[in-house]
């Protein structure tokens, strides 16, 4: 028994020592969400932070700027640099064209960006590298905004820095509203519409929706607000606005009006019957029964009208003879 007791005490001491060692051991490093490098516009002479590049010039000019690459890790990074076109996705977000053989990333302003021989840059550990680039505006470039971006890539991860390019010349702010419709029912109802930038400058649209009902007052759709998107020239986006207060049973017409700085105005409308779920089937069945009843009633009425009446018992009494009327043909000779 004393030996067994001693073994138990020794086991308990070993377990406590192991637990203390595990507690004191440093935890393994957590996987970093960020890869350890960033790309951003290099600070100018005033050392101001720039969220994107803003360049402006006339057709035929060569514009210059610098991209800053910061490596905050303990190993060197090799980054590939390129220019790309920017565009709106279907829901209005900004994106850049991918660099694939099937879909070239540059057919617009992205192809005007050049890093010269520095298309691949190696950044040492804990180092900030500044890489210059040029943007050459072709002589025949149309005026207005030309969205683009500079893109840094490493191991499948891309960081795009937007290039807001304005080519000198007349500008036009114009947009249209298309395909207005009410979808869904009840609290899931939404107002769907499409915006198209018909001008040559980027737009920050403001939305207003008006609703009119056939039988009663339609609950107001969302208030006027500035949409959280930037609509690029020539782009088309499909948007929806929730309308939880839509009527349950009525015919509604919604009118979507969109404005933007510079005098851009677009307006369009759409109508729809809003009925509760299941009502269309019951209504259709009722109309079918009503139609069949009406047809049967008409058949009986026509049948009664076609039945012959009683035959007369004798010849009709002779009455005074009247001369047949004389029909005159206008213009006929007499």
Gyration radius, in Å: 40 Å
Q: How many individual β-strands? A: 17
Mean pLDDT: 79
Secondary-structure content class: alpha+beta
H/E topology pattern: HEEEEEEEEEEEEEEEEEH
Description of the structure:
The chain has 334 residues and is of the alpha+beta class. It is 15% helix and 39% strand. It has helices at residues 2-24, 279-306; strands at 37-41, 53-57, 62-71, 77-88, 94-96, 113-114, 120-123, 127-136, 144-154, 157-167, 175-183, 190-197, 206-213, 225-226, 236-242, 250-260, 264-274. The strands form 4 sheets. Strands 2, 4, 5, 7, 9 and 10 form a 6-stranded mixed beta sheet that branches. The protein has a 4-stranded antiparallel beta sheet with strand order 1-3-8-6, with no helix packed on it. Mean pLDDT is 79; it is low at 1-33, 281-290 and 318-334.
């Amino acid at each position: 028994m004393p030996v067994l007791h001693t073994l138990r005490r020794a086991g308990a001491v070993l377990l406590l020592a192991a637990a203390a060692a595990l507690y004191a051991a440093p935890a393994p490093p957590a996987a970093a969400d960020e890869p350890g490098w960033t790309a951003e516009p290099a600070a100018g002479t005033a050392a101001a932070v720039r969220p994107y590049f803003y360049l402006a010039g006339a057709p035929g000019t060569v514009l210059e700027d610098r991209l800053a690459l910061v490596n905050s890790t303990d190993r060197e990074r090799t980054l590939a640099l390129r220019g790309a076109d920017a565009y709106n996705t279907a829901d209005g977000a900004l994106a850049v064209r991918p660099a694939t053989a099937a879909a070239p990333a540059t057919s617009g302003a992205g192809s005007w960006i050049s890093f010269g021989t520095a298309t691949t840059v190696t950044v040492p550990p804990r180092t900030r590298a500044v890489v210059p680039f040029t943007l050459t505006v072709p002589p025949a470039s149309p005026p207005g905004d030309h969205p683009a971006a500079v893109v840094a890539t490493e191991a499948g991860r891309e960081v795009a820095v937007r290039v807001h390019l304005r080519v000198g010349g007349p500008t036009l702010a114009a947009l249209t509203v298309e395909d207005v419709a009410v979808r869904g029912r009840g609290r899931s109802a939404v107002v769907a519409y499409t915006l198209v930038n018909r001008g040559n400058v980027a737009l920050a649209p403001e939305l207003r929706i008006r609703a009119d009902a056939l039988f009663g007052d339609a609950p107001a759709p969302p208030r006027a607000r500035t949409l959280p998107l930037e609509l690029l020239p020539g782009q088309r986006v499909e948007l929806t606005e929730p309308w939880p207060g839509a009527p349950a049973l009525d015919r509604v017409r919604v009118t979507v009006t969109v404005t933007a700085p510079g005098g851009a105005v677009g307006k369009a409308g759409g109508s729809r019957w809003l009925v509760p779920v299941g009502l269309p089937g019951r209504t259709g069945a009722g109309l079918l029964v009503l139609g069949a009843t009406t047809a049967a009633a008409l058949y009986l009425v026509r049948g009664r009208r076609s039945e012959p009446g009683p035959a007369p018992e004798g010849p009709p009494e002779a009455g005074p003879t009247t001369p047949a009327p004389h029909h005159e043909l206008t213009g006929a000779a007499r």
